[in-house]
Amino acid sequence: MLSAYLSNVGILAPGLDSWQRLVEVLQQPENYQATPIEKKIVPFLPANEHRRVSRVTLLALAAARQLGDVEELRQALQIFSLSDGDITTFDQISRALAMPGRPVSPIKFHNSVHNSGAGYWSIATDSQTPSTSLGGGLQTFSVSLLDAMVQLNASDNQSHRECLMVCYDEIPSAPFLPLLTIKDEFACALRLSLNHTHPSSQTLCKLEINIEDCGPQEPVSTQPTAVDTLLTEIINSNTQGIALLLLAAVARLQSDGKARQVVLPYFEQHLRIKLKPVTVC
Amino acid sequence: MRPFLLSHYTLTTAAGCGSKENLRALQTQHSGLQKNNFLDVELDTWIGRVAGLEDISLPEHLSAFQCRNNALAYMALQQDNFIASIEQAKQRFGAHRVGVFLGTSTSGILESELAYQTETFQASGQLPKPFYFYQRHNIFSASDFVRHYLQLEGPAQVISTACSSSAKVFASAARYIELGLCDAAIVGGVDSLCMTTLYGFNSLELIAQDVCRPADKHRQGLSIGEAAAFVLLEKTPQNAAEHTSSTNDIPVYLLGWGESSDAWHMSTPHPEGRGAYQAMQQALNMAQCSERQVDYVNLHGTATRVNDVTEDKAMQRLFSQPVACSSTKGWTGHTLGAAGAVEAIYSAMSLQENFMPASLQTRELDPQIKQNILMAGRTQDVHTVMTNSFGFGGNNCSLLFGDQIC
Known about the structure:
The complex is a heterodimer.
Chain A lengths: L1 E11 L6 H9 L19 H6 L2 H11 L4 H4 L3 E5 L5 H11 L8 H6 L4 H10 L5 E5 L4 H14 L8 E8 L16 E8 L11 E8 L13 H10 L7 H14 L3 E7 L2 E8 L5
Parallel strand pairs in A: 2-3, 2-4
Antiparallel strand pairs in A: 1-5, 1-6, 4-5, 6-8, 7-8
Chain B lengths: L3 E10 L2 E2 L1 H10 L5 E2 L10 E3 L19 H10 L4 H12 L4 E6 L5 H9 L1 H6 L8 H5 L3 H10 L5 E4 L5 H14 L5 E8 L3 H9 L20 E2 L1 E9 L4 H8 L5 E9 L12 H14 L8 E3 L6 H14 L5 E3 L2 H4 L6 H15 L1 E2 L15 E2 L4 E2 L4 E8 L3 E8 L4
Parallel strand pairs in B: 4-8, 5-6, 5-7, 11-12, 11-16, 12-14
Antiparallel strand pairs in B: 1-2, 1-9, 1-10, 3-4, 7-9, 10-17, 13-15, 16-17
Helix pairs in contact in B: 2-7, 8-14, 11-12
């Protein structure tokens, strides 16, 4: 069993632009509106970098930026995960490759790497910590969460007490749209730490994670609530949306103080995640 | 942390199919590079192309995965009795206790690139149906394919941090094993030729017309290659001596690793190699190994001026005296997301054969380079080897291997 403390959450999805907003929506789902994410995402990078960077990377950076003070975050291990990569840039390069002379843009080429988001993050924050960019197909969120817990708990990383984990995917460009399940943008970021005595932000809860053979054992409610319906809608709109199963449980624990469990698919097995309230000593 | 054992390995590169051919190529200085003849790519350059890849068909039940990248993985897995070693691991530990941790930079995107070039796409803007995006194009495809083919059910991931991808998987898998999430893992890398990388590196003016000449005064840049390399990594048995006596092979252990970010530029390393230095230093620290114990370094050595010089600067800071080193990219080309695993296996071969390969294709040493670049292969005792992998996004990883536990 691996454990860590969740100290902050960042989120950027239609109608959701902060952890606080997500908590409000879960309390009053009738007020939720799927307002598209602004075309212009608040700059975080220097102007010359911001101009070059692609949309999917901006999503990741904006979600990560919500996690707190950059001076603290730059000490954290970096995990950036996406299923489908920068598919807009792939589309642009592939169109260039189909043109006479194949005029591929050097900036688009370096943006096309799977670790583009991580690279821009480290440059913007001057973070020199180890940085991992992951893919796990449709289970990228589970793969990423487990990896974050592994990296924090591994003995070689003892000098790093915190990890930031960002999961994100964009709306695919037109040729891929009919093929993929993604219909909307989604990015979320978790700030995880080995200890819960964190200087500036309050710990949300403790997470304990296990790989298990057995599937979900919670009774399936026959009458979905308005919140269930809403969550299902967002979860179905993006590969990373499944993060909301965990985040909704964190929000409920925050409101009632009760421990609970979430089970996420993990290939042939499952991840069982226990959420426990943190008692302040 | 106890070191981890590389209990079995295989690789296929332009220099050869399987370990024996690769070792022979290293010892006889036979390069796998050839003049570019890939598809209709008109670039005047050299490539490290794996022969016969176009003829590989995946087993019928896995035909959805058919693409150049997975064909290369499949071809490599057939060599060196690697599959038999995986079957044994499954029997010993159970299929759900064997993980798959692979690195790639471009997966099977060639399939999609080619689809964009078809008349149908040009006319309709639509990709052909069925289009196996997740099985071919998606970055996870390589691990997904290997898990399905070998019927493994343990933890899995793909790391894609450009040219450090398949070095970092060694660290990642070792952590999962240490924390008890699996008992053994296939670690490795697969990357295959595609147009994005050839034209992309060309757009950055990093591709050489000539063969790549690492550390050479007149170097022009990269030769792009393709490769698949796989290692079965597991815990070192309590009685390590027992293992050696039963196999006759010199054992190879993963002693340590270091990972860092340059935080400098997306496609250019830090001018002083600050991230490279950190990665190498951490690998030594973790192994509790002195820089003086390193017998040989298999360099990242891409043969771009900026890589070679910054890597050397970082090494000047780390090593009190010039260390014997060479880049093996003169044999394979730069195999990008597979380079870390290919060079990890070449490092293992150095330990087992007590052999340090030359810096193939290097004719006149760049006087700026201060390390001891090997102009000829050398046979001598080799006990500790470091290998470097540095990628776009300023992503660095160094691995340290040895034939004994420090």
